[in-house]
Write a structure and sequence with these properties.
The complex is a heterodimer of chains A (about 110) and B (about 120). Chain A is mainly beta and about 110 residues long. Helices cover about 5% and strands about 45% of the residues of chain A. The model of chain A has no long low-confidence stretch (mean pLDDT about 95). Chain B is about 0% helix and about 50% strand. The chains are: A mainly beta (about 110), B mainly beta (about 120).
Chain lengths: ~110, ~120
Amino acid sequence: QAGLTQPPSVSKDLRQTATLTCTGSSNNVGNEGAAWLQQHQGHPPKLLSHRDNNRPSGISERFSASRSGNTASLTITGLQPEDEADYYCSAWDSSFSAWLFGGGTKLTVL
Amino acid sequence: QVQLVQSGAEVKKPGASVKLSCKASGYTFPNYFMHWVRQAPGQGLEWMAVINPSGGPIYAQKFQGRVTVTTNTSASTLYMELNSLRSEDTAVYYCAREVGAPDCWGQGTLVIVSS
């Protein structure tokens, strides 16, 4: 089944802004919105936002999500060393009745 | 606080089965959907199943017929049994609670399938 497409890697300088993208379809991102998760090596994922830009308690305002059509974006402002991690988008697909994950984007903070 | 504690690591031979557990605490277990997600070494996240503790499970097509997800509501525990294991099933298996999306994750259980 089709999944969600993310760029494999993004590199940005410290204190700059990074925007990560996730492209799906009208059956998933375009319909239900996307969730974003952060995963550091050796740790479980952590939810950053869901249904486009609902942030769980405790998540920094430096992380903001948005959507345009079938593409979701995660913007991280004021990049910090601890932001270096893998980022996954995720969405429910109403056509496949399945939860989809993107392949993940490895963010490097230079 | 909300916590999901998973069972310990497993080593299995090809063709065997494995049953993992995930004990929830800090919230009302029956009120939330629960997911199983796995991650092979060096790979991304792969969704396996979701269950409404008071209803039935939905399985990813890839695992249909090979996976069974159940709950013990009185024990606030989620289970996942995977049959006919092969080397490609070597992965860390996570349980996660859903609040709009998988929001709270267990620590993960490493399953190694090797002869």
